[in-house]
TrEMBL record:
Protein name: Alpha/beta-hydrolase
UniProtKB keywords: Hydrolase
Ranges of residues in domain Alpha/beta hydrolase fold-3: 76-300
Molecular function (Gene Ontology), one example: hydrolase activity
Classification via Pfam families: Abhydrolase_3
Listed SUPFAM superfamilies: alpha/beta-Hydrolases
The species this protein was found in: Hyaloscypha hepaticicola
Length: 329
């Protein structure tokens, strides 16, 4: 499929998904927190110049004032879903609200550039640029970057892993070049991953066949749009920046933080690969909590509920927020 056709289809489905997101974020109660403020920054890691937005969600007692007694806040950097092609950083407002209402953390959701206009690995590099920018400006925003965590949903869950890996590589490069002193280095202490993809060397049919309890949610033509827009040629799909599930042990030990929480869907095509990865990380000495939400398909927490609420979503978010308490203590 030509890049022009891919872009036209992507634009169409971005409009469609924003329509449904409107019902979730503006018509389903209780309403989530609105964005506190936005900052546009440049991508410094990518070889493709460009800019993107950071959406800040802050707890009620947050202030940007600079006094000796001003509280420093733990930092959660979030990566949204959408197959790397659709979606927006504001889509995870409910998750951000759960964090800011139950912790002192600041959530920054990254509106990284999307494929097909910006295919692999530009989105990952934008997110690494966001991390480095936030670390550089931590004092300005009263952030405790020694307590940095990542979160992500679906494609953003993949980014939670791959941004950690790419960040590890970038910091090593900067150290070798003697430029690391220009960055106040934070510490990645935790990952929160909701139904993240981990093995792109597998076909979609293989992923479907791996779950006997599959609940189809995303049509195949949309998967085809995602994959043709974002993915590189097949031989390159074993890259740790696409398939962290098959990355070398040493890289995972060095790049990923000591603790994670993984919330997976019982009816998801990604369940088997996510659970394999969970078992592998435990074997590498990582502390991995979380559970499988039974009876739901991929992206179940993003469905508009209007006045009905979503008990499974609330429980999953509680578990995820609770997982932040220890690394943020």
């Amino acid at each position: 499929m030509s890049r022009i056709i891919l872009r036209l289809k992507a634009l169409f489905f971005r409009a469609v998904i924003s329509f449904f997101t409107f019902f979730d974020l503006y018509l389903s109660h209780p309403l989530p927190q609105r964005v506190s403020f936005t900052k546009r920054i440049k991508s410094t890691v990518s070889s493709i110049p460009g800019s993107f937005d950071l959406l800040f969600y802050t707890p009620p007692h947050y202030t940007k004032s600079q006094t000796p007694n001003t509280q420093k806040h733990p930092l959660l950097i979030n990566f949204h879903s959408g197959g790397f092609v659709i979606g927006h950083a504001r889509d995870d407002a409910r998750w951000a609200t759960a964090v800011t209402s139950q912790t002192s953390g600041v959530v920054v959701s990254v509106n990284y550039r999307l494929a097909p206009e910006h295919p692999f690995p530009i989105g990952i590099e934008d997110c690494v640029s966001a991390v480095l920018w936030l670390w550089r400006h931590a004092d300005e925003y009263n952030l405790d970057i020694s307590k940095t965590a990542f979160s992500g949903f679906s494609a953003g869950g993949n980014f939670a892993y791959t941004v950690a890996i790419r960040l590890h590589e970038e910091l090593a490069r900067m150290k070798d070049e003697g430029t690391l002193e220009d960055v106040e280095t934070g510490r990645l202490v935790h990952l929160v991953v909701f139904y993240g993809s981990t093995e792109y060397q597998l076909t979609r049919d293989e992923k479907d066949a791996s779950n006997p309890n599959l609940i189809p949610v995303i049509p195949k033509f949309l998967f085809r749009l995602f994959d043709e827009s974002y993915l590189p040629p097949k031989p390159e799909r074993r890259s740790p920046l696409l398939s962290p599930g098959i990355a070398p042990d040493q890289l995972l030990e060095d790049a990923l933080p000591p603790s994670l929480v993984m919330i997976n869907c019982g009816g998801d095509q990604l369940l088997a690969e996510a659970e394999r990865f969970k078992k592998r990380l435990v074997g590498l000495g990582k502390k991995v909590n979380g559970y499988i939400v039974e009876g739901v398909g991929h992206g179940w927490d993003k469905t508009p509920t209007f006045k009905k609420g979503n008990a499974k979503r609330d429980q999953a978010y509680r578990v995820a927020v609770d997982s932040l308490q220890e690394p943020w203590a």
